[in-house]
Batch of 2 targets.
Target 1
Amino acid sequence: MPNGTGRGRLGCGGGWILQIDVSGQHFVFPALCACCCGPAGSALSVSSSKSDGKRVVHTKTNAWDFPYCDACVGHVRETETAKRVAWTLFAVSVIVSGILWVSVSPYLGIPAGILAVGGTIFLYKKQLAAARGLCCVGCACIEKAVAYLGWHSTLHQFDIASLDYALAFMVANQRKLVNLSNEARELLESSGNVPLTGSQRAARRQRS
Ligand SMILES: [Zn+2]
Ligand SMILES: [Zn+2]
């Protein structure tokens, strides 16, 4: 799929991620796994937050549940755990090696730090390989295959890594699609669907 002037971009695993903008309050979520496009029996949520106010800060969070199959929920959770564990071990490694450096000797702190960070990277790669082992050939991504980029009024923006799911989502919400990128339009047209959205226009102003 060409990059062109649209907003398709390379995602995890080298696949394309499509940004899809929809306008409305309610959307249809096809009952397919957002990662492998198989039958969905579970769900994963994506969310985004906005804060406003100076003295009293109000935070608003929107969340959407996308359907997933159990296997894909498994590899997404494994990947998230691997990242969380790696960051924790990395922080502990830096702190402990720093303490050894200051309180004992740099000759102990430096090799201890190198060893600990090396061990953390080894464990992280091992956990990622385990998560990858849970993926099937149709998986779009080892992490969440959908990201919620945020919203402006009733406009909601999603990044979808599975082109099959992106197509199903666009077809199910055709009348709510806005800002259709060249890639999204091509995908719809290649599947025999004629995009229903036209180009956006501002109101014409007249004075009399
Ligand atoms: Zn799946
Ligand atoms: Zn998957």
Target 2
Amino acid sequence: MTDDRSIPSRRDLSGLPRFEPGTVWLVGAGPGDPGLLTLNAVTALRHADHVVYDALVSDEILDFAAPGAHREFAGKRGGMPSPRQRDISERLIELARAGARVLRLKGGDPFVFGRGGEEALALASAGIRFRIVPGITAGIGGLAYAAIPATTRDTNRAVILATGHSAGGAVDTCDWAALAKTGAPIILYMGMTFLGEVAAALMAGGRDPRTAVAIVVNATAATQRTHVTTLDRAAADAEQLGLAAPAIVAIGDIVNLHAALAPFSLNATGQVG
Ligand SMILES: C[S@@+](CC[C@H](N)C(=O)[O-])C[C@H]1O[C@@H](n2cnc3c(N)ncnc32)[C@H](O)[C@@H]1O
């Protein structure tokens, strides 16, 4: 088999959508590895006049943008408060009305815990046309890089994506006991701050304390780290090992597949494990 990547293919990229001035593309950049960008995401980066990007979008990905494109950070930076969602939406509207091709670039998928829905609604109310470009969400693609399949026929018929963001707060709207009772694996986004509270609520709801848990930090990046533990130990392990966001926490039998798959699964740096 040849390894010459310069051999032309039969298909060029001319069939991809055009980025029209005065429109906004809400694009998912995937969990970090630039190889997980979609062709539409690369098109958006190449043609955007203005890129408004979030904290989890790496420089490696931003470097696909045209040299003249204006880059504007709209995420949370070093302890500073995040910009208000309303201000970001208004900025997108302002740029589109000025005739720019506006790329709103988000980590993972824009519609999975990414506020893409809120921004799309704001654009629709302002009469601005937009295109949604889905991305690979960290809870599926990030776990895949850690050799943990979201489903297999032998383990689960359903999978739950949940956020742990409000779990320690007064307004935790998630019924953890109800989720526990489904028996389905739970994939937790933003789960590190309140991991102890979530684990306790799931065990109180009937989940076995020995349920397997994987904490995948910096999934798909060269610095990816996977720690496998159990539900009753997960929060203590995370603290002891200094595991911090961004991390995906997988809870359930799917995690048990990691031991068999990881020794053969090549990661972002081409190593196994
Ligand atoms: C605001 S949410 C955005 C989720 C994103 N829209 C997605 O679809 O993946 C941020 C959370 O996503 C998860 N996350 C995003 N990228 C990650 C990565 N590379 N490794 C681990 N977790 C990640 C973490 O739980 C992080 O706290």
